[in-house]
Batch of 2 targets.
Target 1
Amino acid sequence: MAPSSPTAPAHSRPHEAPGLGARSVHQKPGPDTLLATRDLVIDIPGRAPGAPLELTVDPGQCWGILGPNGAGKSTLLQTLAGLRTARAGTIEVRGQAITRLPRAELARRIGLVFQTHHDGFPATVLETALIGRHPYLRPWDIETSEDYARARAALAEMDLSDLEHRMVDTLSGGERQRLAIATVLTQDPSLLLLDEPTSQLDLHHQVAVLNRVQGIVAQAHRAAVLVLHDVNLAARYCDHLLLLFPDGQACWGPTATMLVPSALERLYNQRLSVGEVDGLPVFLPRNE
Amino acid sequence: MTRAFLLAAAVLLPASLLAVLIALAFGSVAIAPGDLLAVMLGEGSRLHDTLVLELRLPRALAAFAAGGLLGLAGALMQVLLRNPLADPYVLGLSGGASVGALLAMLAGLSMFSVSLAAFAGALLSTVIVFGLAHGTGSWTPTRLLLTGVVVAAGWGAMISFLLAVSPTAELPGMLYWLMGDVSHARNPYPAWILLVLVVFLALPLGRTLNVLARGPMQAAALGVAVRPVEWSIYVAAALITATAVMQVGAVGFVGLIVPHMLRLVFGNDQRVILPASALGGGILLTLADTLARTMIAPEQLPVGVITAMLGVPVFLFLLYRSR
Amino acid sequence: MDFKAFGRNPAMFLAMFLCTAPALAGPVSVTDDDGHEVRLEQPAERIVSLAPHITEVLFAVGAGDKLVGATQHSDFPPEAEMLPRVGGYSRIDMERVVQLDPDLVVAWRSGNSQSQIEHLRELGFHVYVSEPRSFDGVAASMRRMAQLAGTETQGDEAVRSFEEAIDTLRQDYAERDPVRLFYQVWEQPLMTVNDDHLISEAIRLCGGVNVFGHLDRLVPRMDREAVIEADPEVIIGGGMGEDRPDWVLAWTQWEDMTAVQRDNLFFIPPSLLQRHTPRIAEGTRLMCEELERARLRRAD
């Protein structure tokens, strides 16, 4: 692809994404920026360092992270949440270094939904949603009726109200995933990090969850970063995309500039057919 | 949470009182309820005063405190390892304590030194198990449990070795110690102070432990400082196990079955389960010791035999039911 | 005087006054085997024994009728079987002891729990700790227990006949031709005794030589090969009861052993040899006779 291509990614460095040949236009973090990384290299044990990332997540943005299995999407998400130390570079949360923020403070600003859920001991659905209030409570505090109300509201949004008293280990995979999202809704952070939030959901709930995320992002001082496997959902719901290539390279920018078929084909090592539905591009694997 | 807490308090506090009362009322010498009442009102005969106040009361209190500590230690370790099968006995802490105690007995030291040696042995075992499991970084519950089980087996072999080379005259005392025995626990107050202290320190930590039970990553994402919390649990569990073992020897299964049974009734909120395990463990050991004193009186059984007779079937049943 | 004790039972007071005049003697004081001074205002009237051999010694020195309680397995003399029990020697039932309200408790240092002995002292009981390790120790024990019970007359007599019996055996046998012997305490595990044990004192007195006397531990556990290699001239079995256990004769499968070839497989009831009581004189006599029999078989 020619360097001058109008669809080239806006925020990427040419030497890191040679196939894309994008311009390096780095957006400077502003006073409202929720999360900014500087020369961030995530730490995947046994792997050569990938391209440094200069991401800036501003309020109102919804980022999608795309990449094949093992590209480091989950690791990146957990690093952004302050749960893993980076190999190099820094992360700032509203201008403060993430390593200097107290954990509880950080949990009020950033919430993360994991791909898998460990329920060591039996607990009810309501109890599980309620732990989202943990960052807001002091040690001796007992959950107030307001905390319960928030948890119940979040369960209602995820269609889980009827299951309030069910034990978590009796839920289906999709129900458990919706519960995890309800928990992060109860947590109510400024920045939502969701690791494959739709992977186990039926079509209706996929759309419902992503609509809800869109609704949150539309509120003041909110943003979201989603790891997705479905390019078409990403195209529809995310305004920014980050492509993580298997060789550690990366490129990122507004969605419109990132949906380059050749880049996506290289990303997934898969030939694609492109179409258009409702004015949005649709990518389907091509079978040869 | 509040309802479960009040329910647990309403059931377990009277039950604790009842357990201590039963321990005071029964022994190898029969005391009529009226005489027991007289003792409590300060009007008992000299014999009854001695029996109830100087023999049964300190022993019941020691059993209760030690049982409470063991129950609490079990509940803490189960959260730490996120595994309902963890307890000080399974993790090798009691084994280390036993080896310490047997070595002290073999050296002919006093009962006080034997207790101190047991304490040191339990701590040493904790350091070994957690140090080895920690290894080069990954401190996974499975690895910890596996290390504990293997170290416990090692202690078991050491115990057999010590029994094999010990003078015949020492054997009965050693065997009683290994099976757990409250008869030499005479000053229950240090254990009580520790019990109350840990319960009150653990209560505000309860919600944090609830979150920790969901896994370290999830807990960290919810604002828990995982490492410091895990280390405090581990130090607290080691300390209270060592104190309990020092009092009553290697009593097994209290830490395993008490939190388990309580979870079935009161749910899994650590703010309820931790204090409830303290009371439940106390009740179990107090009653078990009363049985140990009276079942084949005037001969005395080691209390560990009773808790194991109750504990083994319950353990197997729970293991069978768990997937 | 402890008038409370009498207050409960005036008849006992009368009986004591009439029958046991020496009981009204003054205070007695002896030093026990732990080095504690045991001081009674007057000789003991209610004694609890915490070991079978202590019960036996107390009966031997004439204090049997003052015993009010004893541990399990106190089976000699037969009257001892009737005594109220206070648990096994390794774990005493403290409540029973307290209930019996003894004015003297006689404990066994290597058998009773040290902490229970201390506990009894803390509860205000007079505790005499006994730990005889030799014939002299048995005699000293008898004398002191007789003193505490105020039965010196009978006690001195018992000690005199015990010492006489031992002296006679020593004169008759100690200088005879040495007989190398293996004393078998138990079969599973195979156990013997070293020279520090009371049994070895009996062996020496009879002119015997314990083939494993040099070992470090008091009751060593043995390998059968070591016994076969040592090839003792005599094997004496102990065991638990009053009858010869089968394992004494089981040695006959090793036909090359001297003890087997000469049929020197003997049994002496352990209650006569392993308990620190005056009956050990009887056990020693049996052993001396068996060793003499072995000497006679040398000629064959």
Target 2
Amino acid sequence: MTVATTDSPTATNAGRLAARGAPVVFDNLTRRYGATTALDGLSLEIAPGELVALLGPSGCGKTTALRVLAGFERPDLGRVLVDGIDVSHVPAQRRDMGMVFQSYSLFPNMNARDNVAFGLQIRHQRAAPRRAKATELLELVGLAEHVTKYPHQLSGGQQQRVALARALAIEPRVLLLDEPLSALDAKVRAELRDQIRALQQRLAITTVFVTHDQEEAMSMADRVCVMFQGRVEQVAAPSVLYCQPATPFVGQFVGVSSRVPVTRRGDRAEVLGREVPIRGDLNSVPTGDLEALLRPEDLDVVVNPNGLGVVTHRSFLGATTRVGVGVAGTNLLVDVRSAHADELDLGTRVDVRVIARDVLVATPRRAT
Amino acid sequence: MASLEFGTLVADPSTIDQPFESDTPVTRRRRRIRWGRGVILFLAALYFIVPFYASMAFSLQKPTGGFSLTPLTQIASAPGFLSALWLSTQLAVITMVLVVLLMVPTVIYVHLRMPRFRRVMEVITILPIIIPPIAYSVGVLESAPAWLRSSQYLLAIVYVILAMPYVYRSLDSGLGALDLKTLVEASRSLGSSWVSTIWRVLVPNLRSALMSASVLTIALVFGEFTIANVDNWTTIPVWIYLAPTDNPRVNTLVAMIALLATCLVLTLIVSLDRSVTYNTDADSRRKQ
């Protein structure tokens, strides 16, 4: 059984920002599609001005949660509170939420400025201030030169920036980002990621960001909510999520880890010949066969002609080199400083040591 | 087979003796295909032009030889022509408005909420083509309320059914080319109601589909004979067939003018649609 843990939203740096955004609460949301349960009692609190990333594998319910918040889906059970008000049955057009979609969603018949001004036009704002505000927002996202261009004349990254400006134009209470970077190439994605984060912090707008890309979630979010099978596995700041995963799923899903069979001895586990304290609540540690989840930086290798491990592959990552070591049928990933990696040729015999202060243990994965 | 070095085009010596590209088998095959296309196009053009030319010649030829434009001046004064033209125009406009008002929300709804129902819709909307028009006439006349039976608007309602296959297909392909769900959700998240979303976002992006649907509807109304005749309404086709003119050349000329007018409207609409697209493209090229 896994235990979901949640950091307090006020513990993050978002709490220190001028809170112009509204607080959001998912209260025990359940959404089913026939026999499939997309959301299974999802509960989450988001502080004003905070950026929370919903992260998880495909089908974990993250997009459904966002769509329920946007008003495009109705929950079967539970409530969505925005600014303390239950909006579960408020239609999407009355929720005051700006949304940027995964696919390019600009209106093809309107140029960039008209797209941005669309929400203001709907709110019956006069033409002159409407156009001025749209132009100002396009300048804010770095598209001052492109105000009269139509969507088909803009690149993917430019279109998503226009979409962001359009979502911000209505001064939404909550900004919703549904994998807005997934269709872009790596360089544009990195640039836009930084731009979105900077804008979000500057405007202090509550933001919910759906992604399946860990790097995006970890680099942008104040807190990351890892979801699995419609439930929250853990909500925490990115560093906490990486260093102290609350559940084996989080440990396995976030970052890279190797699984090593262990023997439990009280509050410790014997891993690769060394006894290491078990991380977390011992009462929730399962009984029976166990495995330790070890990050590449939790391990170290030493060349030893009589060692039990054999170097099976090497990947140069810049400052570090990731080395694969086969030990008794298990492949372990170990990060070593690139300066010391030259001696670790393929086939070199090595000893692997655990250097972590404690380890997370889980039941072994079933073969699929 | 050449390389560009520092702005100079340098021939690759190894390829100098090779035959010109225009003599390669691929090029010869392409040339044959172009010829083939030309022949097919020419035959198709003949198929349309010869009867048209023959009819025009029949209408404008003087019995004594040579051509005269006098039949053109006789059209407006031909008994019943203007009222038939007015009736056909009214019916075309009413049908067009009704079919668009009915079909646009329907097709959008099917695309968004009932995508699996699209196949059923395709079958349903093909029925007006399969069922003979005479069956409609009799069925509609029998089942319509008495107050509507004597009205010309009954004919428009029947034409809406007849136009449905063309309008549905046109809108279906137009909507298929859009990311409908995302556009609708984007519009709604910005505060737009359903009506506003359809009017401001979807209709402008369905311009081409709506134009072709409208042209097809107009052409259908201006060409439909059976139902109007059975229902005792003198529309243009009925007038052409029945008009008591002393000069049959006028009737033929009207038929040809109707055909020409339809072609012109179609061409005009297509070129207007193209010019809008080309202008936006040219705009972007100038600014870049």
